[in-house]
User: Fold this.
Amino acid sequence: MTARGVFVTGTDTGAGKTHVATTLLRALVTAGVRAAGMKPVAAGIGEGYSVNADVALLAAADGLDLPMSDRNPYAFAPAIAPHLAARDVGVAIDLAVIEAAWRRVAEVADAIVVEGAGGVCVPLGAQFDMLDIARRLQLPVLLVVGVRLGCLNHALLSARAIRERGLHFCGWIANRIEPAMERADDNVAELATRLDAPLIADLRWKRPAAFDIDDLRRLDLAGA
Ligand SMILES: Nc1ncnc2c1ncn2[C@@H]1O[C@H](COP(=O)(O)OP(=O)(O)O)[C@@H](O)[C@H]1O
Ligand SMILES: [Mg+2]
Assistant:
C-alpha cells in the first residue's frame, strides 16, 4: 500500500464530504498527481442508475478508468444505514475486501481520497464502524464540518472518536452549508480553538471551492 491517502469523514450526512473529496481530487489532478476517489461503502443508488451518485462524482473528478467495484466494493440500492442495507441482502461487510480494493486502486494511483458514508460512528457490522476503514487502511482522517446549529457538538464528538481510535486527525474543513446560520463565524472560531487539528479551508456556500498545493502538502497528499 504505497499510495498516499486521506479518509474524508463528516459531522453528518450532507456535511459536504463529496464536495470536499471531489475538490481535493481536482486539485490533485491539477497538481499532476495521479489521484483516485473511493467510497468503499455506499447506500443509495438512484432508480435507473447502476452506480451510487457519490461514486460517480468521485470518478468524474479524478478521470481515471477504474472498475466501479474497486472504487465502491459495497454498493447497496436503498438509501438507508449501510449495515441495515447489507443485512437485508445477506451481505457481511468485510474490511479485507475493502483493503484488497484499495490495493488494486493503489497500483494505478499515487493518492487516494476515500470518502466515508455518514459520520464517524456509522456501523458497518456488529463489531465495527466507519472509522475502522480508516484504521484498516492506515489513513489520516479529514473531518468535514457542516456548519449549522449543532455542529459544535457533532464536530467535538467526531474529533473525540477519531482520537480514541488512535487515528491521525490531519485536519478539518468548515463547510458553510447553511448560509443564513446565526453566529456561524463564532462557531467556526470556537472549533478552531477546540479541535486539535488544522483548519484546512473554510468553504462558502455556492462559491467555487479549490485547494492549493500547500493544502495538499498539509494533508500529505502531494510530495514535498
Ligand atoms: N459549499 C457548498 N456550496 C454549495 N453546495 C454545497 C456545498 N457543500 C455541499 N453542497 C451540496 O450539498 C449537498 C450535500 O453535500 P455532499 O458533499 O454531498 O455531502 P456528503 O457527501 O457529506 O453527504 C450536495 O448537493 C452538495 O453539492
Ligand atoms: Mg457524499
Q: What stands out?
A: Residues 17-18, 54, 115 surround magnesium ion (ligand 2) (CB under 6 Å). The chain has nine helices and eight strands.
